[in-house]
Amino acid sequence: PLADHDKIRETFMNCPQGMEVDHKIPLRGKLVSGLNVPENLQYLTKEENQAKGRFFIPVTQKAGSTLFTWV
Fold first, then answer.
1. Reduced to 3 states, what is the DSSP secondary structure of residue 36?
2. Cα gap 29→47, rounded to integer Å
3. Distance between CA 3 and CA 39 in Å, rounded?
4. What is the C-alpha to C-alpha distance for residues 48 and 1, in angstroms, rounded to an integer?
């Protein structure tokens, strides 16, 4: 997907107080790297984001797409 810069900017601008914008699939992961697209962004607390680091594992397959979680 192409990056929607307006939507990415909006995600950062609307980040709730006490939260951080995180890339679900890290931009520079050890196994794979994610994209800087709105679908790859989520809000986490600072503690959750630090605990997550750059790690994730695939957890299930649904309708042809892999869902990921972080460890």
1. coil
2. 19
3. 10
4. 27
**SS3 of 56, please?**
coil
Give the DSSP per-residue string, 21-67: EEESS-TT-SS----SSGGGEEEEEHHHHHHHTT--EEEEEETTEEE
Residues 2-18 have pLDDT tens digits of 779 999 999 999 999 99
Indicate the burial class of 19 (C-beta count within 10 angstroms; 0-12, 13-18, 19 or more). Answer: middle
Place of tokens 């196994």: 31
Q: How many CB atoms lie within 10 A of CB 20?
A: 16
Q: How far apart are CA 12 and CA 41, in angstroms?
A: 9
pLDDT, one tens digit per residue, over 24-55 is 888 887 777 889 999 999 999 999 988 887 77
